[in-house]
Write a structure and sequence with these properties.
By secondary structure, this protein is mainly alpha-helical. Helix content is 59%, strand content 6%.
């Protein structure tokens, strides 16, 4: 019996969630004021970036779920109130809730590649799929985690490596063929 392979869009979201957790772990290891320290960047603070990613992730889940524009806008307002000014630990909890909401949504989704039409009063109509929007969510998060890395470096701290390939290695786990000396071909 063969197992059904996970859809690549779901794997991309898995990567997004993994990379977010890596950043939370790293930020929690740094001095507490790093999270709210002002820097000259696209966002004023790392907290602002963390909040932005959360709010946008929530908005796209609403869109993917087929909510109306009006309902999505109400949800954005609700999530702004829920997340603005929150501590790093509070935001981690909100991210975990968001990840569970996405997982629940994926579990009920029959075909992530099915046609999905979204309408926006300014941008018009877009024919797409949930899979494409999930890829967008992952890509958006990657972009802004890069902002956080640049901000950390401005403050004299290192970033955290969240390259997709490291996620794949972690998913794969150590294999029996791992070479102790790090050689590629065992020699």
């Amino acid at each position: 019996m063969t197992m059904k392979k996970k859809h690549t869009a779901f794997q991309q979201f898995g990567y997004h969630a993994w990379a977010n957790r890596k950043f939370f772990d790293h930020l929690e290891s740094l001095p507490e004021d790093v999270y709210t320290q002002k820097v000259e960047s696209v966002f004023a603070t790392i907290r602002d970036v963390i909040v932005h990613i959360y709010q946008v992730d929530s908005m796209w889940l609403s869109v993917m779920s087929g909510d109306s524009f009006r309902k999505t806008m109400a949800l954005i307002k609700e999530h702004e109130e829920k997340s603005t000014g929150r501590s790093l630990q509070d935001m981690r909890v909100l991210y975990e809730e968001s990840e569970r909401s996405y997982s629940d949504f994926f579990g009920q989704l029959y075909d992530p590649d099915a046609d999905l039409t979204i309408r926006h009063p300014r941008f018009g109509k877009l024919d797409t799929s949930v899979a494409d929007l999930v890829r967008h969510v992952a890509n958006h998060g990657t972009y802004h985690r890069g902002n956080i890395t640049a901000m950390l470096r401005q403050m004299g701290h290192s970033g955290v490596s969240t390259d997709y390939v490291f996620y794949l290695f972690e998913l794969n786990g150590p294999s029996e063929q791992d070479v102790p000396d790090g050689g590629q071909d065992g020699s």
